[in-house]
Amino acid sequence: MKVWIDITNAPHVRFFKNIIEYLQGEGEDVIITIRKFGDIHKLMRLFGFDFISIGKHGVSLAEKLKESTKRAYKLSKLIIEEKPDVGVSKHSIELPRVTFGLKIPSVYILDNEHAIAANKLTLPLCEKIIMPEVIDLWDVIKTGADPNSIIRYRGTSEILHFQNFKYNDKIFHDLKLELKKEKTILMRPEPALASYLDADCHKSVLTPIVEMLKDHANILVIPRFKEQAELFKGYENVTILKPPVDTFSLMKKCDLMIGAGGTMNREAALLGTPVISCYPGKPLAVDKFYIENGLMHRSTETDEIVKLALKLLLDDKKPPKIETDDLFKIIIENIYNAANKG
């Protein structure tokens, strides 16, 4: 069997890591395509995967349209030659369009119901859509998805990230961090370049929070791009980390996570670290899942976030356990089923 996996965002590298390794271990031919965006290339090399880099991320709407169109064309030329049995992706704009055009079955992993434009371009073309059961079916069907193509599971996609995770308790030492305070907070700025969030990449909702918490704890910031890194320079007790780093061990080691994004917040929640989400957009259903299960707090008010952060830094309560399905098994089974039907 020949499987095409398209990776378009850095967190998706970790998501697909164990799937790729399993398929390769089973002797399947796996073609991995990626685009130039964030730390995708660095993470792929870190995990030792062979890949084909095609296209890049566009910032403005016009650039997004042009880059996606060019990428779809280049991917089409490659996939016409490779003839895979099935295509697999997580929020790739181009893979569903290419597989649909070439009559190749596709398996699509979805966890963002607010990415309306992207979902309208992709979901109507997908053979199978695997998504958390907490996402309202109507939010997906109204973008054109076939209800019969949808497979739902308990949990969120981040449960797959920890399939073979080994915690490094010496992560602070390995990173040579000079930490002066007893408590440490990890922060992740908002995805300011994403199409689904109206944000200014030269500002961050985290800067006033940093200003008020820098005297109470060590603050580690993992920016998404160069302009974001510049926003946090010059603060005392603030360290800017350059990816790729062992974020899982960092999240587990830190006393608190404050994130203006999504993936790392949910990962930290699964690792048992207290989390405050200050995502400036409308909360996703997957975030509500963690909030309702007592694994995440949410606020967009600076004073409230700071007050809650100081409280959580002193709270030793263990988070509750949650029931989830075996997402790895669900994805693998659907890859084989789709390929065999193709």
UniProtKB/TrEMBL annotation:
InterPro entries: DUF354
Family annotation (Gene3D superfamilies): Glycogen Phosphorylase B (3.40.50.2000)
Pfam families: DUF354
Protein name (Swiss-Prot/TrEMBL): DUF354 domain-containing protein
Organism annotation: Methanothermobacter tenebrarum
Biological classification of the source: Archaea, Methanobacteriati, Methanobacteriota, Methanomada group, Methanobacteria
